[in-house]
Amino acid sequence: MDFAASEPGATAVASALAIKILIAGGFGVGKTTMVGTISEIRPLHTEELLSERGVGVDDTSGVEAKITTTVALDFGRITFREGLWLYLFGTPGQDRFWFMWDELALGALGAVVLADTRRLEDSFPAVDYFEQRGIPFVVGVNCFEGARRYDPTKVRRALGLNESIPVVLCDVRERDSVKNVLTTLVTHAVEGA
Amino acid sequence: MTGEDPGPLIRLFGLTGGRARPQGEAFDLVAIVTTTGDVEPADLIPEHRAVLSLCRRPTPVADVAAHLKLPLNITRVILGDLRREGLISIERPRPVAQTIDERIYREVLDGLRSL
């Protein structure tokens, strides 16, 4: 990508920037663990209240349809300096919350799709989602204990990934490993675009 | 649902008037919120007062939620209300490509490596 022109003299306040990265993948693949491994704060777990859209909305009252469900959302933070943060959002696992993904993905720098070699098919929906929307992503193959170590090339083939998409082996419990995944993503998102 | 304590939900409804969506232009979960002006109306609820105090330093929406200990959706409704009152400004969505220059990119990479 072409870099945005730097504005000389812009103050730190004016350039306050929060970068957003999504952590996606199937249920139980290690999304929450990954956020927890690298976040400087205890990952915040919120139960988001959702209203059923478009059903029974009474515009005149200003009150939406009654809140019908909740979805769990985890996020963590890394502060590089005052005015420059990186936020990691774990995406809700259930398919029925796709609309929430749309909101999360808007303006995201990119995404990490975590994959478990024992259940690679669980990663397909996330891969499809980011491919279709042109959102840069990398695949992190979480090497669970007891899981067969896969050759990244085989994982790439199994997921039908383009050659340009980085595939990295990782252990989401290890800080250095998570750092490696994130630097790979940032580099891919900025230089690969 | 029977037998569950409805207390927290009712409190959240009270904060937002039952709304699940903020008013006005959409904003991102990591949009920067900044308190505008020095005058604080006297009749603000504690949550509004807390936002104005926190956002004297520009603060991302997600962090405001963390400080208030409230769900993101509820926090966004509160922020939408404060924006309508002209008490805060919320950064407009920008394409990622326009926000990251080479200096920021280097800072992020170096920052990650030195964690």
Walk me through what this model shows.
The complex is a heterodimer of chains A (193) and B (115). Chain A has 193 residues and is α/β, with parallel strands linked by helices. Chain A contains 5 helices and 7 strands, in the order E-H-E-E-E-H-E-H-E-H-E-H. Chain A has helices spanning 31-38, 98-105, 124-133, 152-159, 175-191; strands spanning 17-25, 44-51, 67-81, 84-90, 110-115, 137-142, 167-170. In chain A, strands 2-3-4-1-5-6-7 form a 7-stranded mixed β-sheet, sandwiched between helices. In chain A, helix 3 links the parallel strand 5 (110-115) and strand 6. With 115 residues, chain B is mainly α. In chain B, 49% of the residues lie in helices and 8% in strands. Chain B is elongated and about 45 Å long. At the A-B interface, strand 1, strand 2, strand 3, strand 4 and helix 5 of A face helix 1, helix 3, helix 4, helix 5 and helix 6 of B.
List the helices and strands and how they pair.
The complex is a heterodimer of chains A (193) and B (115).
Chain A (H helix, E strand, L loop, with lengths): L16 E9 L5 H8 L5 E8 L15 E15 L2 E7 L7 H8 L4 E6 L8 H10 L3 E6 L9 H8 L7 E4 L4 H17 L2
Parallel strand pairs in A: 1-4, 1-5, 5-6, 6-7
Antiparallel strand pairs in A: 2-3, 3-4
Chain B lengths: L6 H10 L15 E4 L10 H9 L4 E2 H8 L3 H13 L3 E3 L5 H4 L2 H12 L2
Antiparallel strand pairs in B: 1-2, 1-3
Helix pairs in contact in B: 3-4
Mean pLDDT of chain B, to the nearest integer, reads 85
Supply the helix-strand structural class of chain A: alpha/beta
Largest sheet of chain A: 7 strands, mixed
Compressed to H and E, one letter per element, the order of chain A equals: EHEEEHEHEHEH
Shape of chain B: elongated
Number of strands of chain B: 3
Biggest interface: A-B, 54 and 46 residues
Q: Tell me what portion of residues of chain B adopts beta-strand conformation.
A: 5-15%
Span between N and C termini of chain A? 5 Å
Fraction in helix of chain B: 40-55%
Distance N to C terminus of chain B? 44 Å
The count of helical stretches of chain B stands at 6
**SSE order of chain B, as H and E?**
HEHEHHEHH
Shape of chain A: globular
From the helix content, strand content and strand pairing of chain B, which structural class follows?
A: mainly alpha
Number of helices of chain A: 5
